[in-house]
Amino acid sequence: MNKANPIDLTPFIKAYDVRGLVGSQLTDGVVEALGAAFVDEVDAAGNEIIVGHDMRDSSPGFAAAFSAGARARGANVVMIGLCSTDETYFASGSMNAPAAMFTASHNPATYNGIKFSRAGAQGISFNTGLKAIRDRAQAYLASGIGPVAQPGSEREVDVLAGYASYLRELVDLSGIRPLRIVVDAGNGMGGLTVPAVLSTAAGLPELPLEIIPLYFELDGTFPNHEANPLEPANIVDLQKAVVEHGADVGLAFDGDADRCFVVDERGNPMTPSAVAAVVALREIRRVRASQPEGAIHVIHNLITSRIVEETIKNAGAIAVRTHVGHSLIKDQMAATGAIFGGEHSAHYYFRDFWGADNGMLAAMHLLAEFGSQQQPLSVLSERFSPYATSGEINSVVEDVPAATARIRAAFANEAEFDELDGLTVTGITDDDEAFWWFNVRPSNTEPLLRLNAEAGSEGQLHTIRDRVLALIRG
To answer: What is the pTM of this model?
Structure first.
């Protein structure tokens, strides 16, 4: 650790997590300081914290350095080893202890990062503790980590079997029709969790599922494709395999396996919004069966398709529209008592999973719904995808306020505006087929403006999309 000229932590401690380049930004010394700072922030001296990591080459060493810093400040560290991010949420929730997960999710192998949770899998964002962790760690880098009278201990625990058993308790797949499923783990942590949860690797009973694996070997260099299924190029292999094997469904997980993407029997993607609508409906029905009266809240961020809000309301629940971002949504889950939350980015949150996100659990709900009837997945997908959507389109914009002002001026007489997260513009019309909306949000880290749009028809979508892009790009 270079105390005379310590690394500046500001550039790579983001709104929701730590995400930086290995060696130049994230070093053992930086990680050790972050471990000490985390213990101070969550007041864990004398108590347990959980540390897990993904399959990246740098992850085991960083987990060890973090443990050293945490123990120096008096925490008793529970090392859970190789795991998915939602496994750390399970450990944090079931053991009621703070947790740190080493992963850079879908980022390339040159990156690593940390996702933090308070006890009970509560999220930590920049404004709810991450800034304080950064500032404490920066001070430790400059002056060294002050020892405590009673340093902490370290022990190892395997939580995979408990995690798999708990998910099986939440969603019963034993009675569905037999399904053939291609799963692309992208050489990420899904290669560990899928055999445990959906097959028999954790010692659980066999399910009526035939799993055809793609890239289950844990390899943090991602030799086959990036572990980011949000990019269409990264699900091409899955799409081909689903068709070639005559599979009923395809699933793709990102690097830390907390997000899951779905492909139907034709190889066509099922949008995360459609998945969110299906899961929301199942959760509302389940809760309503045991709670005939009273309000049920379900969260969706403002980028999800209109079908999500419509599904929630039509099922008799209250739809809560939120900002984009997992820590913010976790806060809203807690504040509203929501039973479920869905994002356009394939993050799905469950009250029964401590309000945390879990892509595997969302996939299980989809399999349960799909497997309880005889129609192909494409029929279910089309039912919950009635509108035309653009997906996220990024544009390099040096002057975001100027671009936003151009949009406001152009749509002033034909739309309503709101600024919940960026600028959302909704067309004023009574004709459902002519409806449209779009949202533009600036990136937190790059000179980008992100556009998402939806309309009642493809023609209407293309018209709105092209108008907005012309305004954004000047």
So the answer is: 0.94
Cα torsion through 191, 367, 281, 169, rounded to 10: -70
- Beta-bridged to residue 212, according to DSSP, are 182
CA-to-CA distance for 28 and 135, rounded, in angstroms?
A: 17
Does the annotation count 381 as an active-site position? Answer: no
Q: Tell me: do 407 and 359 sit in the same domain.
A: no
Residues 6+ apart with CB under 8 A from 319: 298, 300, 308, 309, 312, 313
Q: What is the pLDDT of residues 26-47, one digit of tens each?
A: 999 999 999 999 999 999 999 9
> DSSP class of residue 367?
H
Here the CATH number for the domain that contains residue 305 is 3.40.120.10
Say which residue the tokens 């798999």 belong to.
164
- Mark which of 96, 124, 158 sits at the end of a domain: 158
DSSP 242: H
- Please give the pLDDT value at position 432: 72
* Token pair listed for 373: 């009837």
The active-site residue, picked from 105, 125, 345, 385, is 105
* DSSP classification of residue 253: E
